[in-house]
Amino acid sequence: MSPSSPPVSARATSGLDVPPSGAPEPPGHPDGVHATARIRAAHNGRVTTLPQLHSDGPFHVRRMRTSGNTAMVGIIGAMSAPLGGDRLTLDITAEDRAELEVTTAAATLALRGPTTEAATYDVRLTVGEHARLRWLPQPLISAAGSNLRQTYSVELAATARLVLREEQLLGRADEEPGHLVSRILVHRAGRPLLDQHTAYGAPEPGWNGPAVLNGHRAVGQLLLVDPRLDIRRDPVLLGTGTKDGCAVLAPLAGGPALLATAIAPNASTLRELLDQAQAHALNR
Protein backbone atom coordinates (compact mmCIF):
# COMPACT_ATOMS: atom_id res chain seq x y z
CA MET A 1 0.00 0.00 0.00
CA SER A 2 1.32 3.42 -0.85
CA PRO A 3 2.01 5.96 1.91
CA SER A 4 -0.59 8.29 0.40
CA SER A 5 -3.44 5.81 0.89
CA PRO A 6 -6.23 6.88 3.30
CA PRO A 7 -6.33 5.32 6.79
CA VAL A 8 -7.70 1.81 6.63
CA SER A 9 -7.39 0.63 10.23
CA ALA A 10 -11.19 0.31 10.53
CA ARG A 11 -11.33 -2.18 7.67
CA ALA A 12 -11.34 -5.89 8.32
CA THR A 13 -8.58 -7.75 6.53
CA SER A 14 -9.98 -10.08 3.92
CA GLY A 15 -9.42 -13.76 3.56
CA LEU A 16 -10.77 -16.31 1.16
CA ASP A 17 -14.01 -16.85 3.11
CA VAL A 18 -17.22 -15.01 2.23
CA PRO A 19 -19.11 -13.79 5.34
CA PRO A 20 -22.40 -15.65 5.85
CA SER A 21 -25.69 -14.03 5.00
CA GLY A 22 -27.01 -11.90 7.85
CA ALA A 23 -23.61 -11.34 9.47
CA PRO A 24 -22.82 -7.71 10.39
CA GLU A 25 -20.65 -5.98 7.81
CA PRO A 26 -17.34 -4.40 8.84
CA PRO A 27 -17.28 -0.60 9.10
CA GLY A 28 -15.47 1.44 6.48
CA HIS A 29 -13.52 4.66 6.45
CA PRO A 30 -16.14 7.48 6.61
CA ASP A 31 -14.79 9.13 3.45
CA GLY A 32 -14.23 5.90 1.56
CA VAL A 33 -10.93 4.50 0.31
CA HIS A 34 -9.41 6.02 -2.82
CA ALA A 35 -6.88 3.63 -4.40
CA THR A 36 -5.32 2.90 -7.79
CA ALA A 37 -3.25 -0.21 -8.47
CA ARG A 38 -1.20 -0.50 -11.66
CA ILE A 39 0.15 -3.40 -13.67
CA ARG A 40 2.31 -2.91 -16.76
CA ALA A 41 3.73 -5.66 -18.95
CA ALA A 42 6.38 -5.08 -21.62
CA HIS A 43 8.27 -7.23 -24.11
CA ASN A 44 12.06 -6.92 -24.01
CA GLY A 45 12.68 -8.66 -27.34
CA ARG A 46 12.78 -12.11 -25.79
CA VAL A 47 10.13 -12.46 -23.07
CA THR A 48 7.38 -10.52 -21.35
CA THR A 49 8.53 -8.60 -18.28
CA LEU A 50 6.65 -6.72 -15.55
CA PRO A 51 8.31 -3.31 -15.11
CA GLN A 52 5.46 -2.00 -12.96
CA LEU A 53 3.51 -3.75 -10.20
CA HIS A 54 2.00 -1.12 -7.92
CA SER A 55 -0.26 -2.20 -5.04
CA ASP A 56 -2.63 0.23 -3.36
CA GLY A 57 -5.55 0.13 -0.94
CA PRO A 58 -7.31 -3.25 -1.12
CA PHE A 59 -5.27 -4.39 -4.14
CA HIS A 60 -2.20 -6.47 -3.28
CA VAL A 61 -0.51 -7.22 -6.64
CA ARG A 62 1.75 -10.26 -6.90
CA ARG A 63 3.84 -11.80 -9.68
CA MET A 64 2.92 -15.43 -10.37
CA ARG A 65 4.51 -18.22 -12.37
CA THR A 66 5.03 -17.64 -16.08
CA SER A 67 3.55 -19.81 -18.79
CA GLY A 68 5.68 -19.71 -21.91
CA ASN A 69 5.92 -16.06 -22.93
CA THR A 70 2.92 -15.06 -20.79
CA ALA A 71 3.52 -13.11 -17.58
CA MET A 72 0.94 -13.88 -14.91
CA VAL A 73 -0.20 -11.58 -12.10
CA GLY A 74 -2.50 -12.28 -9.16
CA ILE A 75 -4.45 -9.67 -7.20
CA ILE A 76 -5.07 -10.43 -3.52
CA GLY A 77 -7.61 -8.51 -1.44
CA ALA A 78 -5.86 -6.73 1.42
CA MET A 79 -9.05 -5.43 3.09
CA SER A 80 -12.82 -5.54 2.75
CA ALA A 81 -13.75 -3.65 -0.41
CA PRO A 82 -15.56 -2.16 -2.17
CA LEU A 83 -17.75 -0.48 0.43
CA GLY A 84 -20.05 2.50 -0.08
CA GLY A 85 -18.06 5.61 -0.97
CA ASP A 86 -14.90 3.77 -2.10
CA ARG A 87 -13.19 4.84 -5.31
CA LEU A 88 -11.12 1.92 -6.62
CA THR A 89 -9.22 1.66 -9.90
CA LEU A 90 -7.18 -1.06 -11.57
CA ASP A 91 -4.99 0.19 -14.43
CA ILE A 92 -3.58 -2.69 -16.50
CA THR A 93 -1.45 -2.31 -19.62
CA ALA A 94 0.05 -4.89 -21.98
CA GLU A 95 2.48 -2.99 -24.19
CA ASP A 96 3.36 -3.96 -27.77
CA ARG A 97 4.07 -7.71 -28.14
CA ALA A 98 3.59 -8.38 -24.41
CA GLU A 99 1.46 -11.29 -23.20
CA LEU A 100 -0.22 -10.86 -19.82
CA GLU A 101 -2.75 -12.79 -17.76
CA VAL A 102 -4.33 -11.26 -14.64
CA THR A 103 -6.59 -12.98 -12.12
CA THR A 104 -7.79 -12.50 -8.55
CA ALA A 105 -7.21 -14.82 -5.62
CA ALA A 106 -10.83 -14.76 -4.45
CA ALA A 107 -14.21 -13.32 -5.25
CA THR A 108 -14.70 -9.56 -4.93
CA LEU A 109 -17.41 -8.86 -2.34
CA ALA A 110 -19.34 -5.59 -2.61
CA LEU A 111 -20.66 -4.71 0.86
CA ARG A 112 -22.84 -2.11 2.50
CA GLY A 113 -20.67 0.79 3.69
CA PRO A 114 -20.93 3.65 6.19
CA THR A 115 -22.60 5.73 3.49
CA THR A 116 -25.31 4.99 0.95
CA GLU A 117 -23.19 6.67 -1.73
CA ALA A 118 -22.22 4.26 -4.49
CA ALA A 119 -18.76 2.75 -4.56
CA THR A 120 -16.96 2.81 -7.91
CA TYR A 121 -14.71 0.06 -9.23
CA ASP A 122 -13.02 1.01 -12.50
CA VAL A 123 -10.95 -1.46 -14.51
CA ARG A 124 -8.87 0.11 -17.29
CA LEU A 125 -7.32 -2.27 -19.81
CA THR A 126 -4.90 -1.17 -22.54
CA VAL A 127 -3.49 -3.63 -25.08
CA GLY A 128 -0.84 -2.65 -27.63
CA GLU A 129 0.04 -3.92 -31.10
CA HIS A 130 0.49 -7.71 -31.32
CA ALA A 131 -0.06 -7.91 -27.56
CA ARG A 132 -2.39 -10.24 -25.67
CA LEU A 133 -4.24 -9.64 -22.39
CA ARG A 134 -6.33 -12.17 -20.50
CA TRP A 135 -8.44 -10.63 -17.69
CA LEU A 136 -9.87 -13.57 -15.73
CA PRO A 137 -10.99 -12.47 -12.25
CA GLN A 138 -13.04 -14.48 -9.79
CA PRO A 139 -16.71 -13.44 -9.55
CA LEU A 140 -18.03 -10.18 -8.16
CA ILE A 141 -20.64 -10.73 -5.43
CA SER A 142 -23.26 -8.04 -4.90
CA ALA A 143 -24.23 -8.44 -1.21
CA ALA A 144 -27.46 -7.10 0.28
CA GLY A 145 -27.35 -3.38 0.95
CA SER A 146 -24.34 -2.72 -1.28
CA ASN A 147 -24.27 -0.05 -3.97
CA LEU A 148 -21.62 -0.44 -6.67
CA ARG A 149 -20.89 1.02 -10.08
CA GLN A 150 -18.36 -1.03 -12.03
CA THR A 151 -16.84 0.12 -15.31
CA TYR A 152 -14.54 -1.57 -17.79
CA SER A 153 -12.72 0.85 -20.11
CA VAL A 154 -10.76 -1.05 -22.77
CA GLU A 155 -8.43 0.36 -25.43
CA LEU A 156 -7.19 -2.11 -28.05
CA ALA A 157 -4.70 -1.67 -30.85
CA ALA A 158 -5.71 -3.05 -34.25
CA THR A 159 -3.68 -6.26 -33.80
CA ALA A 160 -4.35 -6.68 -30.07
CA ARG A 161 -5.89 -9.84 -28.60
CA LEU A 162 -8.17 -9.82 -25.57
CA VAL A 163 -10.01 -12.29 -23.37
CA LEU A 164 -12.24 -10.55 -20.82
CA ARG A 165 -14.40 -12.61 -18.48
CA GLU A 166 -16.89 -10.97 -16.14
CA GLU A 167 -18.98 -12.96 -13.64
CA GLN A 168 -21.48 -11.43 -11.23
CA LEU A 169 -23.36 -13.17 -8.42
CA LEU A 170 -26.44 -11.27 -7.29
CA GLY A 171 -26.67 -11.80 -3.55
CA ARG A 172 -25.23 -14.42 -1.24
CA ALA A 173 -27.22 -17.46 -0.07
CA ASP A 174 -30.81 -16.58 0.82
CA GLU A 175 -30.40 -12.82 0.47
CA GLU A 176 -31.38 -10.17 -2.01
CA PRO A 177 -28.61 -8.48 -4.02
CA GLY A 178 -27.46 -4.93 -3.63
CA HIS A 179 -27.64 -2.35 -6.41
CA LEU A 180 -25.13 -3.18 -9.13
CA VAL A 181 -24.57 -1.08 -12.25
CA SER A 182 -21.97 -2.28 -14.77
CA ARG A 183 -20.67 -0.88 -18.04
CA ILE A 184 -18.23 -2.36 -20.57
CA LEU A 185 -16.81 0.18 -23.02
CA VAL A 186 -14.35 -1.11 -25.63
CA HIS A 187 -12.53 0.76 -28.40
CA ARG A 188 -10.47 -1.02 -31.04
CA ALA A 189 -8.06 0.98 -33.23
CA GLY A 190 -9.77 4.13 -31.95
CA ARG A 191 -13.28 3.02 -32.94
CA PRO A 192 -16.11 1.81 -30.69
CA LEU A 193 -16.42 -1.96 -30.55
CA LEU A 194 -18.77 -2.48 -27.59
CA ASP A 195 -20.70 -0.26 -25.18
CA GLN A 196 -22.89 -2.34 -22.91
CA HIS A 197 -24.72 -1.18 -19.80
CA THR A 198 -26.48 -3.43 -17.26
CA ALA A 199 -28.18 -2.74 -13.91
CA TYR A 200 -29.49 -5.19 -11.30
CA GLY A 201 -31.17 -4.98 -7.93
CA ALA A 202 -33.51 -2.40 -6.43
CA PRO A 203 -34.46 0.22 -7.51
CA GLU A 204 -33.99 -1.02 -11.11
CA PRO A 205 -37.38 -1.96 -12.64
CA GLY A 206 -37.90 -5.48 -13.94
CA TRP A 207 -34.30 -6.64 -13.45
CA ASN A 208 -35.40 -10.07 -12.20
CA GLY A 209 -38.31 -10.50 -14.60
CA PRO A 210 -38.70 -12.98 -17.48
CA ALA A 211 -37.31 -10.51 -20.03
CA VAL A 212 -34.02 -10.07 -18.12
CA LEU A 213 -32.78 -12.71 -15.65
CA ASN A 214 -35.96 -14.77 -15.20
CA GLY A 215 -35.09 -15.54 -11.60
CA HIS A 216 -31.43 -16.42 -12.16
CA ARG A 217 -28.82 -14.90 -9.84
CA ALA A 218 -25.60 -15.48 -11.78
CA VAL A 219 -24.80 -13.49 -14.91
CA GLY A 220 -21.63 -13.17 -16.95
CA GLN A 221 -19.92 -11.98 -20.10
CA LEU A 222 -17.03 -13.33 -22.13
CA LEU A 223 -15.48 -11.01 -24.69
CA LEU A 224 -12.99 -12.42 -27.21
CA VAL A 225 -11.14 -10.10 -29.57
CA ASP A 226 -8.61 -11.65 -31.92
CA PRO A 227 -7.79 -10.91 -35.59
CA ARG A 228 -7.32 -14.66 -36.08
CA LEU A 229 -10.86 -15.60 -34.98
CA ASP A 230 -13.07 -17.45 -37.42
CA ILE A 231 -16.14 -15.24 -37.09
CA ARG A 232 -19.52 -16.75 -37.94
CA ARG A 233 -22.40 -14.43 -38.71
CA ASP A 234 -25.15 -16.24 -36.83
CA PRO A 235 -25.39 -16.23 -33.01
CA VAL A 236 -25.16 -19.57 -31.22
CA LEU A 237 -27.33 -20.61 -28.26
CA LEU A 238 -25.57 -22.70 -25.61
CA GLY A 239 -27.07 -24.51 -22.62
CA THR A 240 -29.89 -26.94 -22.03
CA GLY A 241 -32.70 -24.50 -21.33
CA THR A 242 -34.10 -21.70 -19.23
CA LYS A 243 -34.12 -23.58 -15.89
CA ASP A 244 -30.43 -24.48 -16.02
CA GLY A 245 -29.33 -21.23 -17.61
CA CYS A 246 -28.14 -20.48 -21.11
CA ALA A 247 -25.63 -18.44 -23.06
CA VAL A 248 -25.62 -16.68 -26.41
CA LEU A 249 -22.41 -16.33 -28.41
CA ALA A 250 -22.65 -13.59 -31.02
CA PRO A 251 -20.27 -11.65 -33.28
CA LEU A 252 -19.74 -7.91 -32.85
CA ALA A 253 -20.08 -5.66 -35.85
CA GLY A 254 -17.01 -3.52 -35.20
CA GLY A 255 -14.24 -6.06 -35.52
CA PRO A 256 -12.98 -9.64 -35.17
CA ALA A 257 -14.78 -10.15 -31.87
CA LEU A 258 -17.27 -12.47 -30.19
CA LEU A 259 -19.37 -11.74 -27.11
CA ALA A 260 -20.95 -14.44 -24.95
CA THR A 261 -23.65 -13.44 -22.47
CA ALA A 262 -24.81 -16.04 -19.95
CA ILE A 263 -27.32 -16.37 -17.13
CA ALA A 264 -27.41 -19.27 -14.69
CA PRO A 265 -28.82 -20.33 -11.33
CA ASN A 266 -25.38 -20.51 -9.69
CA ALA A 267 -21.69 -19.71 -10.11
CA SER A 268 -20.54 -23.16 -11.23
CA THR A 269 -23.13 -23.40 -14.00
CA LEU A 270 -22.27 -19.89 -15.14
CA ARG A 271 -18.58 -20.79 -15.43
CA GLU A 272 -19.45 -23.94 -17.38
CA LEU A 273 -21.51 -21.94 -19.86
CA LEU A 274 -18.75 -19.36 -20.39
CA ASP A 275 -16.19 -22.16 -20.82
CA GLN A 276 -18.45 -23.76 -23.43
CA ALA A 277 -18.75 -20.45 -25.24
CA GLN A 278 -14.97 -20.00 -25.32
CA ALA A 279 -14.40 -23.56 -26.56
CA HIS A 280 -17.00 -23.06 -29.31
CA ALA A 281 -15.45 -19.74 -30.34
CA LEU A 282 -12.00 -21.34 -30.60
CA ASN A 283 -13.38 -24.42 -32.40
CA ARG A 284 -12.26 -26.78 -29.65
Structure description:
Helix content is about 5%, strand content about 45%. A hairpin with a 7-residue loop joins β3 and β4. The strands form 2 sheets. Strands 3, 4, 6, 7, 9, 10, 12, 15, 16, 17 and 18 form an 11-stranded mixed β-sheet that branches. The chain has a 7-stranded mixed β-sheet with strand order 2-1-5-8-11-13-14, with no helix packed on it. It has a domain at about 35-225. It contains 1 helix and 18 strands. The chain has about 280 residues and is mainly β. The model is unreliable at about 1-30 (pLDDT under 50). The longest helix has 15 residues, at about 265-280. Keywords: Chaperone, Cytoplasm, Nickel insertion. This is Urease accessory protein UreD. It holds the Pfam family UreD. It comes from Streptomyces cellulosae. Its main location: cytoplasm.
Characteristic key phrases:
284 residues; 7-stranded mixed sheet; 11-stranded mixed sheet; chaperone; mainly beta; single chain; disordered N terminus
